[in-house]
Amino acid sequence: MADHYSAFEISPVPPPALDAVPPEVYQGIYGMPMFVTVPTSDLAASADFWIRGLGFIDLFTIPGRVTHLRRWAFQDVLLVPTGRSAEVPAMTVSFACVLSQVDEIAAACTELLPGCTTGPRQTPWNTMDLEIVTPENARVILTAARPQDAESARYLESVGIKAPEA
After folding, report:
1. How many other CB atoms sit within 10 Å of the CB of residue 44?
2. Secondary structure letter of residue 94 according to DSSP
3. Distance from C-alpha of 71 to C-alpha of 57, rounded to nearest angstrom
4. What is the pTM of this model?
């Protein structure tokens, strides 16, 4: 059995709460511990969707080569041009958000690309998830932690997940 410890201090994700406030978009430059590269047949249209729909910023663009997008710290996406889009989402990436953002993001994405969202839905691991299929057919899950009650805490502990102390 692995030893787990609370390390929430290194994460930009706020503790689960109905009134959780999302952190500001992070505009600093750092060595990215993880990022996603998404090929697109229309760099400008994809960037527009990710920015206006999903709440990312254009951290920088090298015209015709790459658009580096970011939301919170450690939520980096590189859009790169390709000659075609995948017909079926070839990958899924999940980004943390807070509960108050789920409906807003769903509405913005639906306005930009009707029919692109599924959910939101509650998960057994105590999140509210919204699925979005982007113009380049990437499957994006925006996931917001729900406040934990006694029942969800018992369930998570029964499957080996001990929630950190608040």
Report:
1. 13
2. E
3. 6
4. 0.77
